[in-house]
Amino acid sequence: MSKQDHILTVEVLDQHGSTFTLREICERGECHAEFVIKLVDYGIIAPVEESPEARHWEFDVGALSRLRKAQRLQRDLKMNLPGLAMSLELLDEVEEMRREVGRLNHRIRQLMGE
Amino acid sequence: MDFKDYYAVLGVSESASPEEIKKAYRKLARKYHPDVSKEEDADTKFKDVGEAYEVLKDPEKRAEYDQLRKYGARADGSFEPPPGWQSASGFGGGGYTEADARQFSDFFEEIFGGGRRGGFSGGFGGGGFRQNMRMRGEDVHARIALFLEEAFHGCEKQVSFAVHEADEHGRVIPRQKTLKVKIPAGMREGQNIRLKGQGSPGIGGGEPGDLFIEVEFAPHPHFAVEGRDVMVTVPIAPWEAALGATVTVPTVGSKVNVKVPRGSTSGRKLRLKGKGFPGKHPGDQIVILQIAMPEKHSAEAEKLYEQLAEAEKNFNPRSKIHV
Q1: Structural domains counted in chain A
Q2: Which DSSP state fits B203?
Q3: pLDDT tens digit sequence for B17-56
Q4: Are residues B81 and B16 in the same domain?
């Protein structure tokens, strides 16, 4: 069963777009604030602007996606926080390298006249 | 319904020890985790591996499964449990563990189940839910692949995704939802758009979740994108490089005339200000020159090359590799 609506207004989110407070990100991530604070401590996610007081933190949508990813990895692969932090950093690096390889392959194909 | 060979899924023998099964599961779960793997069917493989482990790690379920495995599949690979089959280890004994049971196959349901049909209550938001509870609906995160031209000019796209909603019995069931979304011009790879209230419906009068859509680009045969800049390699003739020329260069959705400076070399970059991705701070188009040679030369051209070789005899194109 599918329902189709016509949507005309969307909100583009970027670094300067709308952000979530600590409470909002916990609500959306279905987790406790302590978990988010730990993720920030380990550098897994970061508020848009650093502040010593967690109640002043604002997170962008990238942090929300990363929080969900961290939760899935923790649940499915039984990872602890240092392991999560390292894995996510390596996954970012792999992703960046895949993009770079894609760009370089594209460039090589063009140079070869393909 | 097809028979599922859980031993084959985990790549272990029938006589595998619980340790071997755990080890195989851990390895495959890491390999096929949808957040890690880029394989197209990683999601399905990850679910299959999780389901196989759910059965084989539990001695009771494993014993029951082994019994059924001996009973076997039909010649066409389809499977029906023996008449009167009832699992002793399924939901009655405490139900699913940490795995998300909504993901498991019909085969699993038939053997160990009664779950979804019998009023499965786990899963939503990590715990059960009661009808008098007020809960905000889940946010849904989806991805959309756009052609470069679509992202550049803006477009309308159809997006399909699954939301979870409660039926009249309070059971959480998945439903496919399709929306037509207007993508604004100038969206870049990795950017998100939000459609408020288009995620899963709330429960007990709670507000609905949002839909987040992340944009990714389909590869383009000529253009590559780096941030807001668009890169394109443009072939030019050797005499255009040497003498300078005005050449026509493609931009996304248009063409412009570009002046190639006299004495250009292969790999030289020309920046076309403001011809990249549109926006408050539009990007540039970077033209990378590439000197192309004709495949064949006329006798006249060869004579001219001979004259050129004579005139440029001090030029060593291989000086950088010291020969």
Answers
A1: 1
A2: B
A3: 999 999 999 999 999 998 888 888 998 999 999 999 999 9
A4: yes
Closest chain B residue by Cα to residue A111: B290
pLDDT tens per residue across span B225-267? 988 999 999 999 999 999 999 999 999 989 999 999 999 999 9
Supply the range of the domain harboring residue B83. 6-120
Best B192, B215, B277, B281 residue to mutate vs chain A (most A CBs within 10 Å): B192
Q: What is the pLDDT of residues A69-95, one digit of tens each?
A: 999 999 999 999 999 999 999 999 998
Residue B45 CA to residue B47 CA, distance in Å, equals 5
Indicate whether B197 and B248 sit together in one domain.
no
Assigned domain for B318 exists: no
Chain A residues with CB inside 8 Å of B203's CB?
Answer: none
Position B307 scores a pLDDT of 96
Residues B156 and B210 in one domain: yes
In terms of Cα–Cα distance, which of B287, B286, B283, B288 is closest to B152?
A: B283
Check if B137 contacts A (Cβ < 8 Å): no
Residue A11 placed within a domain: no
Query: Which CATH number belongs to the domain containing residue A59 in this structure?
Result: 1.10.1660.10
Asked if residue B198 and residue B300 are part of one domain, the reply reads no
Query: What pLDDT, on the 0 to 100 scale, is given for residue B88?
Result: 67
- What is the distance in angstroms between the Cα of A54 and the nearest Cα belonging to chain B? 23
ipTM: 0.75
Nearest to B137 by CA among B174, B191, B183: B174
| Chain B residues in contact with A64 (beta carbon < 8 A) | 139, 212
